[in-house]
Prior knowledge:
Layout lengths: L2 H27 L15 E8 L4 H4 L13 E9 L5 E4 L11 E4 L4 H37 L1
Antiparallel strand pairs: 1-2, 3-4
Helix pairs in contact: 1-3
Amino acid sequence: xxxxxxxxxxxxxxxxxxxxxxxxxxxxxxxxxxxxxxxxxxxxxxxxxxxxxxxxxxxxxxxxxxxxxxxxxxxxxxxxxxxxxxxxxxxxxxxxxxxxxxxxxxxxxxxxxxxxxxxxxxxxxxxxxxxxxxxxxxxxxxxxxxxx
Length: 148
């Protein structure tokens, strides 16, 4: 694996984690949304990551010069799926979205869980940014060695 492959992998992970953070913040912003355009409460979204890499462990560590045409593995958001947890029902008979029994359906969003997910996403983003910085430093040091 070459230094530019490391940049490609970390760059794709940065993009994926950014998208994950956006989904999490949308979940948090809509935690009390009881009525959407589709009808019913907001549905919590979850991000599904997918990776592309070579199928063999040995191939994953082979450099591009050893295997021309091989691309580095990447991380991407495969899809954003709806959470299947049923809505939380609260008794609020005066609410405009209350059903005939006086219950309102709220999204099944736990703010504490969303904050933990956001902290994990932020930390993964920071780690990948550090990996990009380290790869850039290695490239610069290689250039400096070649100059001398």
